[in-house]
Design a protein that fits this description.
Number of strands: 12
Number of domains: 2
CATH topology of the largest domain: TIM Barrel
Shape: elongated
Largest sheet: 10 strands, mixed
Distance between the termini: 43 Å
Bound molecules: iron/sulfur cluster
CATH superfamily of the largest domain: Aldolase class I
Radius of gyration: 21 Å
CATH architecture of the largest domain: Alpha-Beta Barrel
Number of helices: 11
Strand content: 15-25%
Helix content: 25-40%
Strand order of the largest sheet: 1-2-3-4-7-8-9-10-11-12
Length: 366
């Protein structure tokens, strides 16, 4: 019988023609070698794809015209396409991406004064079934490929005309449990962080897990890896198991032990994301248990008042309750911040835009 954490097999090779988008340097070298070209041209294509973010072969001015014509005829350059965008009053924009097989995922572009943060999806749907999450209600459909993960970044940066040199943060907090798709996630991470490409520093990439201990242990074994966040959301096993079924497999004690064993670099902290659900996870006792959990390893706490959506049955707490919890955690010596989900006026919780898009004809935006 399949277990909760068993991976669905990712689909591969859907296109008859090879697709260069999303390939790493080795893959691009193999591709051009198969065309009878010198392998080093693969490095030129890598820089064009990921540093310049070119999306049409005719833009590859570093290649000869003859090679561009040949690539145009024989090799696809196909990224996920933005098929729906909703701009929020707070400046963020939520995008729905259509993939080659017609499935959709979503990402969010969040500009700040000194940087831009992109929230990315790692799977179509999600197997984890968190009760407060719109994506969790879809179930798992399939893993994203590395190309589909990188493609969300390229598509959003191009859509918003992102200038080279402006810092980019990536957070895997969109659709899916990223550690449930670790192989493709790490392949994408290698491309995203490559200094010859998008050059996003590893410390600017954060993977948020629902508590998949086997994935946390695997992630800790990579010498170069993203930072880790845990979507905690409850402080007793009874509460957590009720809203996050993964807790029935790995309870709070197993999670704390895995996080305490996770190898951190100097100054690195594990982020604990704690969604505040009115009357469910916002009591002073919750605050004290959260502090006790967080003190077992270097941690910082993000309190996230719930972003209500139709059918969820949950509400955010009052501001006074949020302030009291914040004070309690600070007094316990923990770095703590309150994070509002951006895009609350445009179906801000992960999975909502795609779920809405399935019942409404999407509007083409690019
Ligand atoms: S909160 Fe994250 S892990 Fe849980 S169901 Fe939603 S997408 Fe999956």
């Amino acid at each position: 019988m399949p277990q909760l954490w068993d991976l669905p097999a990712p689909e591969a090779g859907r296109a008859a023609r090879p697709n260069a988008a999303g390939l790493d340097t080795a893959g691009l070298k193999a591709l051009v070698s198969a065309l009878g070209e010198p392998a080093w041209r693969g490095g030129q294509i890598f820089e064009g794809l990921y540093r310049q973010r070119w999306t049409r072969w005719e833009q590859f001015s570093s290649l000869s015209k003859a090679l561009r014509t040949r690539l145009e005829a024989e090799v696809d350059l196909s990224w996920p396409t933005i098929v729906q965008s909703q701009a929020s009053e707070d400046g963020s924009t939520k995008h729905a991406f259509e993939l080659a097989d017609g499935k959709q995922v979503e990402g969010v572009y969040m500009p700040y004064d000194d940087r831009v943060t992109l929230c990315l999806s790692s799977q179509v749907g999600c197997a984890m079934g968190c009760t407060f999450c719109a994506t969790g209600q879809m179930g798992i459909i399939r893993n994203l490929t590395a190309a589909e993960i990188v493609g969300q970044v390229v598509a959003m940066l191009n859509h918003h005309g992102h200038p080279e040199g402006r810092p980019v943060n990536l957070v895997f907090m969109g659709m899916g449990e990223p550690l449930h798709n670790l192989d493709h996630l790490m392949a994408a991470f290698a491309i995203l962080s490559d200094p010859k490409g998008l050059a996003i520093p590893p410390r600017r990439v954060t993977v948020s897990t629902s508590g998949l201990v086997s994935g946390i242990e695997r992630l800790g074994g990579f010498p170069k890896r993203p930072r880790l966040a845990l979507s905690l959301n409850a402080t007793t096993d009874a509460h957590r198991s009720a809203i996050m079924p993964v807790n029935r497999v790995w309870n709070l004690e197993a999670l704390a032990a895995a996080l305490a064993a996770f190898p951190l670099q100097s100054g690195e902290r594990i982020t604990l994301e704690y969604v505040l659900l009115k009357g469910v996870t916002d009591s002073p006792e919750d605050g004290r248990r959260l502090a006790a959990f967080a003190r077992r390893f270097p941690a910082k706490v993000n309190l996230i008042p719930f972003n209500p959506h139709e059918g969820s049955g949950f509400q955010p707490p009052e501001e006074s309750r949020i302030a009291a919890l914040c004070r309690l955690l600070s007094e316990a010596g923990l770095p703590v911040s309150v994070r509002r989900s951006r895009g609350q006026d445009v179906a801000g919780a992960c999975g909502q835009l795609v779920r809405e898009g399935q019942t409404r004809k999407p509007k083409a935006e690019n």
